[in-house]
Amino acid sequence: MRRSSALSLALLLAGCTVGPNYTPPHMHAAGQWGEEPRASSSTYSGAVDISWWHSFKDAELDTLVSRLGAQNLEIQAAMARIGQARAQTQVAAAQGLPSANWAGSYGWTQQSKRGFLSLAEPAPGANLQYNYYTNIAASSWDLDLFGMVRRSVEAQRAGTASAEAARRGVALATLADLVADYMRLRGTQAQIVLTERDLKLVLHDLALVQDRKREGAATTLDIAQARARVATTEGALPPLRDAQAALINAIGLLLALPPRALERELAKVAPQPGVPEGVPVGFPSQLAQRRPDILEADARLHAATARVGAAKASFYPDITLTGSIGTQSLSASDFFMPAAKYFQLGPTLNVPLFEGGRLRGMLHLRQNQQKEAALAYRQSVLNAWREVDDAMTAYAQAQDRFQRVSEAVEQNHQVLTAARQRYVAGATTFLEVDQAEAAVLSSETAKAASQTQIETILVSLYRALGGGWQFAETSVPDHKGA
């Protein structure tokens, strides 16, 4: 009988946790991604590369990424939010632990003769002044019989997981922004090089036309066309140089650097990075393990589910054990005497009888928040699948466009060569040469832009696949103590 009573007491103290237990949701995914047309750089179902920026084989880019994790302010702010979430978890967990406090006081009191003492004559020689010493240690413990505190702690821990996933999302976004800006920078520089080369050619053509004019083999119209071509080419350079400066500053901002801080380092022209021969994309079912937004949505759903349990627990009685022990005396010499000691010990039972609908309203609120979080999780998964599929399609199509533009460049060069030969032979006007040169520059610029597009789409694909945030993984210290 005693053993049964002891077991019942132990179970009572251990309590039970009401409300739904969280089960991670499962969404049926296709076995593999859709097939795309074969290209020079194709996707395949291999393990996703979490250090994908190395696939561009650019040492300068690798250096910039190595600085990003420690210098980017958005990543640091996200880490601070993790620290906040962990501190909130510690605060919530402390509510389920016993608390203990000590207090001591001393008072010197003078009784008023015009107060309550005026109702009765004090005894002759009564001392109206006295000292008062107190010493008390108090403790309390919420037994959390139905798990309100435990569910609150569970929700806070899920909130910490959400903050950690959000930090990964910030890291992945800043990484993708840096790499994409770097690709645009090198693409812009390639267009600057092409335009400067074309400027030299049209200046040479202008000199040639002027010589032929002096010989009587060219007209004033030919010179006007050549000069217009020079002015047009010169006018294309300022916007490109402005774009280069803006991209360098954008990369610097990601590294928390002031404007022009990277100008010496990045203004030097470098070739456009190439893309890998193959891009591993894994399987659709693996996205939930990598994508920070899916991980964050999962953690938010977990927290919302735990808060439903806390709301349900608020309908049940709550018991708090309280106790105190101390000493009281009017004399310092009696302060530690046995007769000066006192204590108090006992439970406090709190039973919710009438709350005006507050508890039920809170439960309905938490249940609808859980429903919203479940829908948000589903939406995040569907959006992830769509982003990967769109990026894979765009990557294949961009490579096809690059091939077409490359063919156009070759054909336009042949046209330009023939036009110059015909002009020198006097078989055509300079207008034909001018048009051929414009077509060459346009197609070469389009080729450089197409190469940049391939690279930035590949960055978008890597971002959609969810890998890469690991570069910024660092520990956030826990805050422990009182």
Structural features, described:
This protein has 482 residues and is an alpha+beta fold. It has one domain (18-99, 161-318, 358-472): Outer membrane efflux proteins (OEP) (Up-down Bundle), CATH 1.20.1600.10. Helices cover 59% and strands 11% of the residues. It has ten helices and six strands; from the N terminus they run αβααββαααβααββαα. α3 runs antiparallel to α4 (148-214) and α4 runs antiparallel to α5 (220-254). The longest helix is centred in the middle third of the chain and has 67 residues, at 148-214.
Explain briefly what this protein structure is.
By secondary structure, this protein is an alpha+beta fold. 59% of the residues lie in helices and 11% in strands. It has a single domain, classed as Outer membrane efflux proteins (OEP).
Structural descriptors:
disordered C terminus, MdtP/NodT-like, transmembrane beta strand, 482 residues, alpha+beta, 11% strand, signal, Outer membrane efflux proteins (OEP), two-stranded parallel ribbon, RND transporter, four-stranded antiparallel β-sheet
Helical run tally:
10
| Alpha carbon gap, first and last residue | 41 Å
Order of helices and strands: HEHHEEHHHEHHEEHH
Let me know the average pLDDT: 89
Q: What amount of the residues lies in strands?
A: 5-15%
Number of strands: 6
Helix content: 55-70%
SSE class? alpha+beta
CATH superfamily: Outer membrane efflux proteins (OEP)
Q: Which CATH top level class fits?
A: Mainly Alpha
Membrane topology: Lipid-anchor
Family: Belongs to the outer membrane factor (OMF) (TC 1.B.17) family.
GO molecular function: efflux transmembrane transporter activity
Organism: Gluconobacter wancherniae NBRC 103581
